[in-house]
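Can you make up a protein sequence with its backbone structure tokens?

===
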Amino acid sequence: MDNCIFCKIAAKEISSTSVYEDDFLFAFRDLNPQAPEHILIIPKKHIARIENLTIDDTELMGRLLVAAKKIADDLGLKNGYRLVFNNGPDGGQEVEHIHLHLMGGRKFNWPAG
């Protein structure tokens, strides 16, 4: 999408601190980190929300989770980390492009929110 900030970041039209990239995904450091390590992992394909996924996106979303594991390993998050999808305004989604938050480097509490 022409106006999507995450599409522009993935296309390198807007600078970011990249931590991972392949043909399908782009990952970068969050500008407003909520943990010592806070990475956003996005598909290069624009998909606004979880409800916009189709069966054709199954492999892409699997790649997203495998990339999260690799990034966490690369960051040395051996004691654990949190993965979060925010979906829609009530779910806290601020950018209409599916993105997975990978957060680590500190202990998290439950319940979240």
Summary: The CA atoms of residues 58 and 64 lie 10 Å apart. The chain has two helices and five strands. The first helix runs from residue 5 to 10. The mean pLDDT is 96.
